Amino acid sequence: MHLVAMAAGFALILLGLYGALTHRNILRMIVGFTLANTGVHVVLVSVGYMPGRAAPILDGAVPVGEAAARIIDPVPQALVLTAIVIGLGITALMLAYAYRLFRARGSLDIADYTELKW
Amino acid sequence: MTLPLLATTGFAAAMLIAALVALVTRSTAVAVLSAGLVSLFASVLFLFLAAPDVAMTEAAIGSGLTTFLFFFVLGRIRREGRDEQ
Amino acid sequence: MSNRFSIRHAAVLGLLALLGLAFWTLLAGYVPDTELNRTAAYYAENTARETGAQNIVTAIIVTYRGLDTLGEVTVLFLTAAIVALVLGQSKAPRGGTGSGFLPSGELLATGTRMLLPIILLFGAYVAVNGHLTPGGGFQGGAILASGMLLLLLADPARRFSHRIIARVESVSGLAYVAIGVLGVALAGGFLDNRILPLGQFGALLSAGAIPLIYALVGLKVGAEFSSMLESLEETEDS
C-alpha cells in the first residue's frame, strides 16, 4: 500500500517537473512546481509508513507503554508538515515575482524574457 | 486485493489523472483547480498512510490557500491585461 | 522554431527518463522498516513522560525540534515581507479595485457575518488542541487565514488594517521567543515546555507550555498567511 503511494508520488514529481520544463506560460510552470512539491510530500510520508501500525497519537487505541511497537515513524510527518507550510511561502513568492514580471513586460510567456538567453 | 489497498490505488490514480489534466488543459484556471484537486486527493492518501496531521495541513494549505493565491494573481493579471488592450 | 522546440522537448524527456530511472531504482530497492529507527523509538517511548503530549508529531515540532519551527516561522515571515515588498513597488493602474472578483452578493455578505466567528473559533480550537488531536498551530493558522479570506471575498473593497496584522504577528513572535528563553532559564533548554506543570496526561491544559506555544504559532502563521493573501489581492492605489 505504501509502495503504491510511493510510486504515485514519484510519478507526480516527474509529471510536475515535465510541466515546469515544457510550459511556456509562467503561471503554468508554477502549477508544475506545486505538483512536484505535492509528489515529494507523498513520497516522504509513505517512507514513514509501516504496515499494521497506527498514527503517532497516544490516545486510547495506543497505550503509552507499547507505543514503540504500535505507531509509525513520526519524524517524516513532522518534516512534511514543515515542508507544506514552506511550500505555500515559496508558491506565494513565485507568484509575486511572476506578477512583477508581467507588470514589467506585459507578458507571461517565458519566451519573451530573453536577457539570459544565448 | 484488500480494501485499503484498493482505496489507496484508486485515490493515487485519481491524483495522477488530476495532475495530467492540470498539465494538458489549455485554460490556466482549470490547471489551477486541478492542482488543488491533486492536493485534495493527496491529503486523502495521507489519511490512508496514517498521517492525520499532514492530511489536515495539506487540505487546508495545499488545496485551500494555494488555490486562492493563484486565483488572486490570475484575476489581477486578467484585469490588467484587459485594461492595456 | 518548431524544430528547436522538438529538440528541447526531447532533451526534457531524456532528462526526466534519467530521473525516472533513479526513482525506479530507489523504489525497487526499497525495503520498509519493520522496527522504528533509534530517533523515532526514542520519541515514541519518551514523549509521554518528557512532554506530556498525546500527539507525538506535535511534540516533535514544538519541543524536540522547536528551534526548526522557529526558523520555519521566520522563513514564513520573510516570505510575507518580500511578497509585500515586491508587490508594493509595482504601481497598479488607478481605479482598479480588488482582484477582479465581482462585488459579492447579499448571500455571501450575510453568510460571512454568520460563519466568520465560527471559523475563527474552530481555528483557535484546532491550534490549542494540537497536543491532543491531529492539528496544531499551522493548521489552526491556515483556518484563521481562510476566515480572513472569506472576509476579503465578501467585501473586496474593504481594507484590513495592516497595522493590526503586523501587531499580532510581531507580538506573538516576540512572546514565542520569550517563552523559549524562559525555557533556558527555568527548564532544560531553549523552548523546553516544562516551564509550566505537565498536568494530567490527556487533559486540555496539560503538556506544559505546548498549547501556549502552538497558539502563538497559530496566531503568527495566521497573520502571515493573511498578509500574503491580502498583498496579493489588493491593488496598491489604497
Automatic annotation (TrEMBL), chain A:
Coiled coil: none
Major place of residence: membrane
The keyword Signal belongs to this UniProt entry's keyword annotation: no
A Pfam entry, by short name: Oxidored_q2
Membrane topology type: Multi-pass membrane protein
Protein name per UniProt: Cation:proton antiporter
Cellular compartment(s): Cell membrane
Native species: Sinisalibacter lacisalsi
Keywords carried by this UniProt record: Cell membrane, Membrane, Transmembrane, Transmembrane helix
Family: Belongs to the CPA3 antiporters (TC 2.A.63) subunit C family.
Phylogenetic classification of the source organism: Bacteria, Pseudomonadati, Pseudomonadota, Alphaproteobacteria, Rhodobacterales
Positions of transmembrane segments: 29-49, 78-99
InterPro entries from the UniProt entry: CPA3_antiporter_subunitC, NUOK/Mnh_C1-like
From TrEMBL, chain B:
Subcellular location: Cell membrane
One Pfam family cited in the UniProt record for this chain: MbhD
Tagged with keyword Transmembrane: yes
Main localisation: membrane
Domain MrpA C-terminal/MbhD: 14-79
Residue ranges that the Swiss-Prot or TrEMBL entry lists as coiled coil: none
Name of the protein described by the UniProt record: MrpA C-terminal/MbhD domain-containing protein
Organism annotation: Sinisalibacter lacisalsi
UniProtKB/TrEMBL annotation, chain C:
InterPro entries for the chain: CPA3_antiporter_subunitB, MnhB, MrpA_C/MbhE
Keyword Nucleotide-binding in annotation: no
A Pfam family assignment: MbhE
Membrane topology: Multi-pass membrane protein
Every Na+/H+ antiporter MnhB subunit-related protein domain range: 108-225
Keywords of the record: Cell membrane, Membrane, Transmembrane, Transmembrane helix
Compartment(s) where it occurs, according to its Swiss-Prot or TrEMBL record: Cell membrane
TM annotation in the entry: 69-87, 107-128, 134-153, 173-191, 197-219
Superkingdom assignment: Bacteria
All residue ranges annotated as the MrpA C-terminal/MbhE domain in the record: 35-85
Family label: Belongs to the CPA3 antiporters (TC 2.A.63) subunit B family.
UniProt-listed PANTHER family: NA(+)/H(+) ANTIPORTER SUBUNIT B (PTHR33932), NA(+)_H(+) ANTIPORTER SUBUNIT B (PTHR33932:SF4)
Full protein name: Cation:proton antiporter
Organism: Sinisalibacter lacisalsi
Record lineage: Bacteria, Pseudomonadati, Pseudomonadota, Alphaproteobacteria, Rhodobacterales
